[in-house]
Prior knowledge:
By secondary structure, the protein is mainly α. It is about 85% helix and about 0% strand. It is built from 8 helices and no strands. It has helices at about 1-70, 75-85, 85-115, 115-135, 145-165, 170-175, 185-205, 210-215. The longest helix is centred in the N-terminal third of the chain and has 69 residues, at about 1-70. The termini are far apart. The relative contact order is 0.14.
Amino acid sequence: RVSIQKQILPACDVSASGRRGASLGMIGGNHAAAAGPSLEIQSGRLRQARPWLALAVFCLANMANQSVWIAFAPIATQTSAYFHVPLWFVNLLSLVFMLLYVPFTFPASALIERRGCRAALLLGATITALGALLRMAALLDMLGHDLRCAFLLGGQALAAAAQPLITNLPPKLAHCYFSSEHWALADTMASASASVGVAMGSIASTSMPSIGSVL
């Protein structure tokens, strides 16, 4: 009798658990069916917002890079006096962006085609940030005059090398993230962010109370 009970009870437990699992599955299915439309709406909104979010991130990176480029141009005389350098050196801080664009634009375009917009933008933004940090090291008096000037020019050169990774992106970004009817608008907004960055950098540098604030 005991052996019969041992054989029957597990079978009854399995059937009971199966019934419970089936009932839970029906409940879960009902909840999933009820939540289905709302999840579809949320995912649809995310898909619609994703291209514009990518465009906004690009615009911020582009504005930052262009702000680094133009920062010293409106305050060339003050920069020359602060770092005890001639004006041609201050002009070189901006000119280095044009000098390095040509040799770096071809590998940057190749990387954009091979790795895509996301990798190029992340790399460009990271190098721009490193260049800005290197410029800040030029404020350290303990480095000496020559080393401070080297850090200042080196930071500008790093940001200049990153420029093609960002400025060459607008057409690719528009085609990869937007539908055909929004290509022109997305390309225009991405390209216009460079001018906005130049304006912001010029206004910020002339409004800051000291060179340290500009850096």
